[in-house]
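Please, does this match?
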Amino acid sequence: MTERWATEVCGDRWSQRPEEQQAIRVIQQLLESKTETQTAAETLASIYEARVKSGKGEPYYLWTIIFSAIDQLGDNINNLKLLSKMITSMSKLPDVLDDHGEPIRSDINKRIYWREMPGFAFYLAEATMEFDYTEGRKDKTWESAMRNYTNGNVFAALYLRDLDESSSKEFGLMRHYCLAIMRVALEVATDTPQQIRRTEIHVPQAARWIEIAGRNIYNSSKANLNSTGENVIQMRIGGEDGGFLVWTGADGFSVERWTFWKKRFGEIAHFEVKEEVKKLAAQAAEEMEKIEKQTTS
């Protein structure tokens, strides 16, 4: 499976530069247990260092390769764990320095290589963390859209869990994406059959965030992180199956919002939806209760 993925990606039109060809094989070796995450991180950084120093462009295609692996090979959670550890290791590598000994920053968002992983979290959300499907599409099936959405969210939750909180910018962005998933899954009205069926897409993703990174999310809730102190802006989310927000409290993380999410998971566990969705929602509510008890004991 990994060999087939590598061969296909190596043949893509956008991956023909030597850097991308080398990067694909490094990631293949990692996922085939032929190299360690730290070694893979160091090798990838060395492959792209000359390009970063020359100012010839962002490592966008490196991120694209990783997102392809998340999508195509992420059904095996061990692959996602390895990729998350590798990316986290890259963020801890020494800064890439210019001729004056100063850290080199991205031209796009001024983030430092590799400490602040320029563009990675942004492109991750764009590539994998939105359910991208409309009826009648020829380039994507419902199944492939759900695979991409599910694998992207599992990876993102792993990445949040693996990140060192000292990586403040990346950590903050991943918390922001976590909030976005919780919002679309648990904070949209469920008054109509269409709105209830919509939970089958989004609630499993929110449940996976709790399963994987629940402690990080609860700690963020207790610390009121990503909050401006203002109430959320009331808006409608989604298309015909969407609705207005039912959470009217403060934006950002809070214990009150955590409690609201737990309540909503419990309610959705009794909706007329697929049994798998009911099970995941119930398990998420139970996990949240367990995290609360373990934290206060």
Observations:
- The longest helix spans residues 193-222.
- The chain has a mean pLDDT of 91.
- The first strand starts at residue 236 and ends at 237.
- The CA atoms of residues 93 and 114 lie 6 Å apart.
